[in-house]
Amino acid sequence: MTTGKGELPGLTALLYAATARLDAHFAACAGSVGLTASQANAVHELAEPLGMRELGRRMCCEPPNVTFVVDRLVDRGLVERRPHPGDRRAKLIALTPAGAALRERLFAALANDPPLTGLSDADRRALRVLLDRALRIG
């Protein structure tokens, strides 16, 4: 059985190129709704109220950066800090109605000409399965 290691550099380059294209699309869509990419990342992750630690984990972001992003979103009236029901020292971050509306606009922008349009639905499903498997193993 071959390990296929000779194909790894080409695959890695393709994954980096795909990631760069997805990041550029995300940043452009964020800008189209008046957000930075980091702010859009937070809004994207806030389908439900989250604690700062969990939001940071989902954003792949350090706590000071999460605080900075959340502070900017609070200033704009897009998110609010709520008391955490299980921990009086902690806060939950939740979208306001304006934030929820902006989240919908962000999702609509992301669906417009996405980078993986060249793949069929079946190809995208297969890619998802393969990436999920690769990331769980690694």
Kindly summarize this structure in a few lines:
By secondary structure, the protein is α+β, with helices and mostly antiparallel strands. It is built from six helices and three strands, in the order H-H-E-H-H-E-E-H-H.
Explain this structure.
- This protein is an alpha+beta fold and 138 residues long.
- Helix content is 63%, strand content 12%.
- It contains 6 helices and 3 strands.
- The protein has a 3-stranded antiparallel sheet with strand order 1-3-2.
- A hairpin with a 2-residue loop joins strand 2 and strand 3.
- The mean pLDDT is 91.
Q: How many β-strand stretches?
A: 3
Structural class: alpha+beta
**Low-confidence residue ranges:** none
Indicate the radius of gyration in whole angstroms.
18 Å
Keywords:
3 strands; 12% strand; three-stranded antiparallel beta sheet; alpha+beta; 6 helices; globular; 138 residues
SSE topology:
Elements: H1 8-32, H2 37-45, E1 50-51, H3 52-59, H4 63-75, E2 79-84, E3 87-95, H5 97-111, H6 121-137
Antiparallel strand pairs: 1-3, 2-3
Helix pairs in contact: 2-3, 3-4
